[in-house]
Amino acid sequence: MRNIKVPVYVCVYRVVTEPVSEARTDRYRRQILSLKQYFAGKDTTVLLLDDRTSEPGDLQLQSLAHGVILLEQMSPTYGDERRQLRIQKLRGIKFRGGRHDFTIRTGGLVVFPRLVASEHQDKFEMTRLSSGVKPLDDLLGGGLDRGTSTLITGPAGAGKSAVAVQYAVAAAERGDHVVMFAFDERVMTLMERTRALGIPLEKHVKAGTIAIQQIDPAEMSPGEFAYVVRGPRQGELLPRRAPARRARHRDRRADRRGPRDPAGAARADRRGQP
Questions:
Q1: Which residues of the chain fall below pLDDT 50?
Q2: Which value, to the nearest 10 degrees, does the dihedral of the CA atoms of residues 72, 73, 77, 79 take?
Q3: pTM above 0.90, yes or no
Q4: CB 100 within 8 A of CB 83
Q5: Which of the chain's ends, N or C, has fewer CB atoms near its CB within 10 Å?
Q6: What is the structure's pLDDT at 6?
Q7: Other C-beta atoms lying within 10 Å of the C-beta of residue 246
Q8: Bridge partners of 144?
Q9: Do domains 8-115 and 128-243 have the same CATH topology?
């Protein structure tokens, strides 16, 4: 019987094999086990690729490997393909179980680990958030509790977006930073409607206290969106306003000094020349 040959590309410290979904025989199992023992003493990391075309329930490779990572690709009825990975086994290491969304982009993989709510508990002062509309705050007992979630529901045209924008503008006027995610409605349409209602949303967007990001749920997985939502806490969506303030300060200092002397400017320029 001929030996089963497994194509191997050898690097200095890593080995990657082509898919090994060949006939599962006892001899094949012994050769894979020998290969594993050989590389274990060579300080080499081995990656085995399996396209899962063998019969169901064949766990020979999984029983021999130290770790097993399962990659899945789903094609929903609407929208882009969704990719997920699941760590099925990793000996001696406590790993994060469950399904984790990931994407393949230019430059490599971007993985969005499954979030665990109990690991993200921040301490904050429990206060009431005003909408800026006193009758509405009175109906809610003084406002919405900080750190809670409130669903505003109603048919089209009932004013859901207007109420949400009202809270966002009120928070921005208190000095808080706000991030809004637009799904169905375009940002331009939202700006036009709030301008017609007299809600100063555009002013706060230009000032940098409110950031609006357009989201296409058909092109973004839930895991990726969860990390986009967490981004504003790290300053990823909010524009930096410090350079603008420094520029205004320079303008005010220039106004106090008065017009610059052209002759003095020419002398300074000549001194700077070699």
A1: 1-2, 4, 10-12, 23, 232-252, 254, 259-274
A2: 130
A3: no
A4: no
A5: C
A6: 53
A7: 10
A8: 129
A9: yes
Domain ranges for the chain, please list them. 8-115, 128-243
Q: Are 201 and 234 in contact, with CB atoms under 8 Å apart? A: no
Other beta carbons less than 10 A from residue 114's beta carbon = 15
CA distance 226 to 108: 20
Domain 128-243, architecture per CATH:
3-Layer(aba) Sandwich (3.40)
CATH H-level, domain 8-115: superfamily: P-loop containing nucleotide triphosphate hydrolases (3.40.50.300)
- The whole-number pLDDT of residue 24 equals 55
